[in-house]
């Protein structure tokens, strides 16, 4: 269990710095270029851990077993993470971090709608608090944030929640590390293939006519320099590779509800780091929104954690 808390702490810190690091290079790398690069590198870093997980389960993957990861990777990386990267370029890093942290509760909603999993009163209360928190953060009556940035963040959050639900069966069968690894690799390869298409003259010309210049002739190596290399490596290797690896390793040593604490602490830590590093000012309405979202997380997390503690106490007394 102690190892689980170490991995949770590592994942929390790395995930809380993700939007900040991406923000510092948002004008240097094409958003799609950064997305396929970091998830391809992250998938390669997860590969040995995925093979170890498969070996421990006595599973040998065949080509047909990889087919589901094509769709899962498309939703998670090609769609969701592209929207997420675009969101970072359109609005403040702290806003993206806070709003995106609500995705575990939307996972519950999709799991109920698509998998028929039960949803409890505490889940509904948590969802209501999360939505109220999101409205306070956005402040639609006195909107000062970029509307496109907010919409992109919420779409990224919802599609990432869908990615989580789509990958649930694969995670149960192979383990979370295997699901993440192969969805990262397939999703990034799909995005690379789409990026190659944007170099075709008719496609590039059409994108430019529509005013979508960033989707025309998407570069593969532009922006790399001695100045940008540390941030690029930090985002790709540390945040995406080590961060997700730590998150899924935590799953092996701690219950899922405990691991979800990563998304409880991120809305607190990320805005503070954005204030210190990027000098992003946090308006009072956003702190109220963060407090409501934390209350929603507590409403969802606390009952199962208390049940686990009571069960552990009973087992200790029985011994």
From TrEMBL:
This protein's record includes keyword Transmembrane: yes
UniProt main location, coarse: membrane
Keywords attached to this entry: Membrane, Transmembrane, Transmembrane helix
Record's GO cellular component terms: membrane
A Pfam family this chain is assigned to: EamA
Similarity section: Belongs to the EamA transporter family.
Protein's UniProt name: EamA family transporter
Species the sequence originates in: Oscillibacter hominis
